[in-house]
Amino acid sequence: MSSLAQTVMHSLDNVVQTAKIRDLSKDFVEATSNDGLTTDHGVKVSDTDNWLKVSDGTHAGPSLLEDQIAREKIHRFDHERIPERVVHARGAGAHGYFKVYDNSATKWTAAGVLTDPSRTTPVFLRFSTVQGSKGSADTVRDVRGFAVKFYTDEGNWDLVGNDIPVFFIQDAMKFPDIVHAVKPEPHNEIPQGQSAHNNFWDFVGLTPESAHMIMWVMSDRGIPRSYRMMQGFGVNTYTLINAEGKRVFVKFHFIPELGVHSLIWDEALKINGQDPDFHRKDLADAIGAGAYPKWIFAIQVIEEADEHKFDFDILDATKVWPQSLIPLHNIGELVLNRVVDEFFTEVEQVAFCTSHVVPGIGFSDDPLLQGRNFSYFDTQITRLGVNWEQIPINRPVCPVMNHHRDGARQHRIHRSEINYFPNRHNAGHPVSPSQGGYAEAMAGVQGMKQRVRGVKFQEHFNQAQLFVNSMTPIEKQHLIQAISFELSHVEDPVVYETYTKLLNNIDFELAKTVAQKVNGVIPDKPGRSNHGQKDATLSQFYYTPKEPSIVTRRVAFLVSDGFNILEVEAVRAALVSAKATTWIIGPRRGKIYADGESIGTGAGIMADHHFEGQRSTLFDAIYVPSGSHAEALASNGRAIHWIREAFGHCKAIAAVGTAAATVKYAINLPEVDIVNTLDTDEVVTSYGVVTTGKYNMKSVARDVLEIS
Ligand code: HDD
Questions:
Q1: Residue 458: inside a domain
Q2: Which residues of this protein are catalytic (predicted)?
Q3: Which of 583, 545, 530, 585 shows the shortest CA–CA distance to 706?
């Protein structure tokens, strides 16, 4: 089913009911065949195609300004666009819910959303890329936004995070610089959806605090396979406050049930052109198919007394809190189970504010967070107007009562003569903390007013090195390739020379290999000694589920006339029952005839796409059934390209019987063993197919597909 059909189905079936969906449903508008067309002022419209004209009935004459119906239609259209977000313009979103497992976090926080297991808190999650504009492609190399709005009983809590746990800069005051540097260059508006250009690498080369973040963005985290297969991080250090008013520092994490998986760069590049909406569709399709994306929600906690115990500053957003030092506590889960009904009113108009927290959650002195707390509300005023929190997707599910008034697009009609406090009726009065009023935790501060960075904020390379040390060899190889790609697109030698020099502070081999590839400064010895530390939890392989899953994985069946239909049906049924999605790809979109069937009259099978209509890049695995079609496939350049490209992207390839020779011919690597099996159970329980020897899929696969 197309994602469009799913969207419609969802709005009609109304399958998921949370407090927020019930709230939104007050604003649902559904056109039916009983509804006639009206103007915005409600008058019925008799003609929406012809502007009122002076005409002799045979020839069109001048159009009349008098036609208020035509004018309204054009006016409304002229003003459809609002400013796109200055960053994170390209995104997709979905509804869902959040639940904690138990009340174990009560010792740290009084927040009901984090402690009350009987609650189901509605959420809206918007994923995004950062650099590109609203119409850019999904699979660019970039950070992904992971912004969650929790509609709690005590008000909205916005956790505006990313898929990477650290950030480019330490102080919010540098945000406009990093964003200007990464965005398309000002003189020519190039490049779109890419960081591979002079200005970005110029800035980060001169800003060593970004080194750690650059390693993450250049790692495979920068090109996720799916929004559903990314971690989410609150990034900044927040605080939790318990019922006694005691404060602890906290970092928030989301861990995807499906594990963390990435594309490889060649796939990402091609998908950018083949299907720029790849991630957006993937999200809608998975939810539509009932394979609801799920994340474990976890926290890391540091007691106030331990704030200064670490060799990094725990308020520095360019540092992780290594899990080897500060363990994760899994306290709940977040599930997305409903696609949006309308993109603009939900995904485009949703607006987040880091400053929006609820009782029991607070801020820290993290200088990035402090600045963010100013910036988000401010930007929403430009984007949506000062009353942006009245927009349906943004309004809380709990009562809102205050003396804020007026402003553009005010929708609330306050039936009271009182718009101030104190007032003679005690209307809209402050609520004490014991009654649920928000209370900041008491925290001592001392110092002189000055423009400074903390002392530990000055160290920039230890954790960049920790991250690189913790990578598996294949992750490291991809990191080298990614930085080399980017610096190859940097034209100014000053810029790529500066960056290759900087790399030597992180890793000698990395610096040397990249410099050799991009004509940078090749070091003859390490810029600093390697501390040799590792943390396994920094590698994305750490998050591969113990029981790998093929739920929602896309498996293409490559067929031509003369394929073995019984085999296709059996394997397909097995894959579908394991909740993978299957697609028939043939020489044409239409009927493909099986072995023994006569062309044109047999029952055949409908191909979803022809070989050129979709490419191997859009699938996780391919299956080539046996049958007399093997020769036809082998003589079809496109089919051969399919197999060869899938092999190059380390995908699992199943080839059965006669098809084994076709696959072998396509990949042209005689030493590769083809597992040849007709036993569907085996195909479905064993590992894909091209398995052993030098080209062992398991060791090289970025995104290991287990057919299990
Ligand atoms: Fe930001 C949007 C994440 C630092 C200023 N940011 C935005 C979004 C995400 C993040 C996910 C998109 C929200 C949405 O879907 O609507 N930003 C981060 C993270 C940061 C961070 C994880 C570092 C920890 N941001 C940051 C700083 C500033 C901003 C330091 C300014 C001082 N961010 C903005 C913004 C945006 C934004 C300009 C653009 C659109 C919006 O806010 O609503 O205000």
A1: no
A2: 88, 162
A3: 545
Question: With the C-alpha atoms ordered 371, 373, 376, 377, is the resulting torsion angle positive or negative?
Answer: negative
Contacts by residues 670-678 (CB-CB < 8 Å, ≥ 24 positions apart): 671/695, 678/567, 678/626
Same domain, 506 and 596: no
pTM over 0.80, yes/no:
yes
Radius of gyration of the chain (CA): 28
Give the active site residue among 156, 162, 387, 394: 162
Q: Judge if 514 and 562 occupy the same domain.
A: no
**Residues near ligand 1 with C-beta < 6 Å?**
85-88, 91, 126, 128, 145, 147, 160-162, 167, 172, 175, 235-236, 317, 351-352, 368, 371-372, 375-376, 379
Q: Are residues 151 and 289 in the same domain?
A: yes
Among 319, 364, 372, residue to substitute to test ligand 1 (most atoms within 8 Å of Cβ): 372
For residue range 211-227, list pLDDT tens digits in order.
999 999 999 999 999 99
- CB–CB of 241/441 below 8 Å? yes
CA of 430 to the centre of ligand 1 (A): 30
The answer to whether residues 100 and 115 touch, using CB atoms and an 8 Å cutoff, is yes
552 in the same domain as 523 = no
Phi, psi of 121 (to 5 degrees): -90, 125
74 C-alpha to center of ligand 1: Å? 34
Whether 567 is covered by a domain: the verdict is: yes
Task: State the number of CA atoms in the 13 A half-sphere of 314 facing the CB.
Answer: 24
Query: What is the domain count for the chain?
Result: 3
On whether residue 419 sits in a domain, the answer given is: no
Residues 368 and 508 in one domain: no
**What is the atom index within ligand 1 of the atom nearest the CA of 236?**
24
User: 610: domain range?
Assistant: 547-700
The upper half-sphere exposure of residue 646, i.e. CA atoms within 13 Å in the direction of its Cβ, equals 34
- Beta strands at 294-303 and 329-339: parallel, antiparallel or unpaired: antiparallel
- CA-nearest residue, atom 15 of ligand 1: 126
**DSSP strand E in 194-310: where?**
232-233, 238-241, 247-256, 294-303
Comparing C-alpha atoms, which of 120, 138, 127, 136 is closest to residue 161?
A: 127
Query: Would residue 328 count as lying in a domain?
Result: yes
- What digits encode the pLDDT tens for the residues 446-486? 999 999 999 999 999 999 999 999 999 999 999 999 999 99
Distance CA 341, CA 78 (A): 23
For a mutational test of ligand 1's pocket, the pick from 173, 352, 383, i.e. the residue with the most ligand atoms closer than 8 A to its C-beta, is: 352
Asked if 162 is an active-site residue, the reply is: yes
The pLDDT value recorded for residue 649 is 84
User: Helix, strand or coil for residue 486?
Assistant: helix
- Atom of ligand 1 minimally distant from the CA of 161: 22
Residues 526 and 617 in one domain: no
Whole-Å CA distances, 206 to 165, 255, 459? 22, 33, 14
Give residue-wise pLDDT tens across range 530-577.
999 999 999 999 998 887 678 888 999 999 999 999 989 988 888 888
Mark whether 373 is an active-site residue.
Answer: no
User: Is the pLDDT reported for residue 341 higher than 60?
Assistant: yes
pLDDT, average across residues 185-192: 97
